[in-house]
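Today's session is about reading a structure prediction critically. Students often jump straight to the picture, but the first step is always the sequence itself: look for stretches that repeat, for charged clusters, for runs of hydrophobic residues. Only then move on to the predicted structure, which in these notes is written as discrete structure tokens rather than atom positions. Here is the chain we will use throughout the hour.
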Amino acid sequence: MDYQEIRYEDVVEDSQQALRQALRFFELEDNIVSTMAVTRGRKEAWRGKLSAEDRRVFAQEAGDLLIEFGYAHDDSWV
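Below is the predicted structure for this chain, in token form.
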């Protein structure tokens, strides 16, 4: 396998498991996992942080990727 895909939501939901997955991919020890933590409840934070103009520009440049990867169902977030 040439790459390892780890979704942001997976990191937020279970940061230790996501880190273990990344460390296994790089064939590194996972003894540091217990020291890592990610704040939960941040999955949708990006929606409230973007201005209307930022949302418009992002939708124009990469909005189709949000739909393709399941972050949005359509362009109603714009």
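Discussion point for the tutorial: The mean pLDDT is 82.
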